[in-house]
Amino acid sequence: MKTKILFFTFLLFCCFTVNAQINTESNIVGSTILIKSNVLNQEREIQVFLPKSYSSSEKKFPVLYILDGQRYFLHGVSLQKTFVEFKQSPEFIIVGISKLSSDRNRNYSANSMNYLNFIKNEVIEYIDSQYRTSKNRMLFGWAYAGGFVLETMVTEPNLFDSYIAASPFPLHQKVDKVDSLLRKNTTFSKLLCFTSETNEGVVKEGTRELNKLLSEKAPNTFNWSFEELQGEEHRSTPFTTLYRGLKRHFDFYPELQFNSLEEFIKAGGLNFVYDYYKKRALKYGFSSDLSDWTMFSITRNAMRANSLEQFEKLVNEFKPTGYIKRLRENRACSIAEFYLEHKQFAKAKELFFEITEKNPNSVRALNGIGNTYKGENNERMSKKYFRKAQDISKSNQ
Questions:
Q1: pTM for the full model?
Q2: Domains in the chain, please, with CATH?
Q3: What does pLDDT average to over the chain?
Q4: Which of 97, 149, 159, 387 has the largest count of CB atoms under 10 Å?
């Protein structure tokens, strides 16, 4: 009996020890701020998410304003983290402007001018005074809030740099206002991204009407896009639309790459690539030199297409930059191996030896040298490098 009691006590101790090692912390995303609005004569809630580097830098950041923040603020935060992690955009601040449950859609229709006054003179003024903002602003809204985004663009065309509207509604009267804006401002240069889903009825009618107007009358300076989203529904369009709008807003930020050699040629080839990097440098202050990743990925497309002609053209174009020496071992080896595959033994051997200068214990490069000598029918040197690669491989194991 005593043994059983001791055993039971031991089990309780183990359970307590395991539980004691688990720490639970609250998952807090951003800050919630209450603004006493003189315009609306009531207290309003906004949510603010700051970039990871905000506290450790003196940089100023773009700001994404999200209408119906109670729904889409967290989606905006998720996208910001994803874009930054994959180097698709710089860091940016996110502000969610929440709607009261009693508002319904009055703020986006009958009360729209008052609500715009609140956003301009109270929300934006507060954010700009309290945080380091670059004055580069984006506005996003869905459905009635999407219609409000269009209303904001024609009423305050310089308040935001990008207007992103998912399934905007209603649009009929707003299309006429957009027409009037473009006739008065023939060099209008803001960004407008709007979408609808293929089965959205009156929403689709409005977006098609707006698309027709812009296709016929938009000046070349106006950066706009319209998409009818396949396989979506009314309530899912905001998620896809915000992603595509942000991607369009931060164009030229990512390092350029193509999915295939055909896509590269169709885009305009090297002339397009060099022009892209000039625009990238102008917009974000990056170097206008092509990145190593861009040069390698384009070369890899030629390898995947098995085009020796395009491959050699690209390697010769990029070789003066010395980028191959800076590549990861496996990427550099793949270029040398393509030469070897096409019996360009001298060029393959030159690259493999360059790789071993930087990575003397590279089994892949040493085997490549062995295969190159084998292709040249030099069995003695071939065996020498195969043996060296084998010894290093065994040592690593």
A1: 0.87
A2: 31-249 (3.40.50.1820), 261-396 (1.25.40.10)
A3: 93
A4: 149
